Amino acid sequence: MSPKKASADTVSTKKAVSKKKAAPKKKAATPKAAPKKTAVKKKTAAAKKLNIAEAKERADKLLQGFGNFEPYKVKSGEEYMNDDQIAHFRLLLMAWKHALMEEVDRTVQHMQDEAANFPDPNDRASQESDFTMELRARDRERKLIKKIEESIQTLDSEDYGYCESCGVEIGIRRLEARPTATLCIDCKTLDEIREKQKGG
User: Fold this and answer.
1) What is the pLDDT of residue 168?
2) Distance CA 100, CA 142 (A)
């Protein structure tokens, strides 16, 4: 074999080897694109989990009634149900009412979005059961909104914060725990005992 042929063979083999080396780079490039899609899916799943967590947090706040509010700081020698206290409870009642009204709107929107005629009777029954539970919860909240409105009216008439039965002060902390309270602790306890006796 002549040196020219040997060098030509060497060049051709080098080209073939370089082509073989270049080919795996193209294959390696395609798997890199796939993780991007999975990353997007992971982000979407994380966003859904976040929305669920937010919804649960909002529901917890709503169950508490008025969420995280700043308790009223009672000053020494302060008159009961003065202008500052009345303003505090008015804001509290209005915020609670607003939160409940927003929840009603969300329920209506949710029921409109989720309403579907499922072909499977089990799916239909499950959806109807969910809707019934939501409507019962909203009905309880509707009654609560009515009580809140009554409490706002008693604020306007300057009767708020006093027991309907005996006329004593209900107390700031009890009213913060239950702003629609109309009875003091003692009268409420007697009322509950009477209810148990009637029920038994």
Assistant:
1) 94
2) 8
CB 131: neighbour CB atoms within 10 A?
Answer: 15
Write the CB contacts of 57 (distance below 8 Å, at least 6 apart in sequence): none
The candidate with the shortest Cα–Cα distance to 79, out of 165, 185, 158, is 158
pLDDT for position 161: 94
Quote the CA–CA distance of 136 and 113 in Å, as a whole number. Answer: 19
Three-class DSSP labels, the chain: CCHHHHHHHHHHHHHHHHHHHHHHHHHHHHHHHHHHHHHHHHHHHHHHHHHHHHHHHHHHHHHCCCCCCCCCCCCCCCCCCCHHHHHHHHHHHHHHHHHHHHHHHHHHHHHHHHCCCCCCHHHHHHHHHHHHHHHHHHHHHHHHHHHHHHHHHHHHCCCCCECCCCCCECCHHHHHHCCCCCCCHHHHHHHHHHHHHHHC
State yes or no: pLDDT of 21 exceeds 70: no
Residues 6+ apart with CB under 8 A from 186: 166
Taking the whole predicted model, whether its pTM rises above 0.70 is answered as: no
Nearest C-alpha neighbor of 94 from the set 54, 140, 153, 173: 153
Pull the structure tokens for residue 4: 């020219």
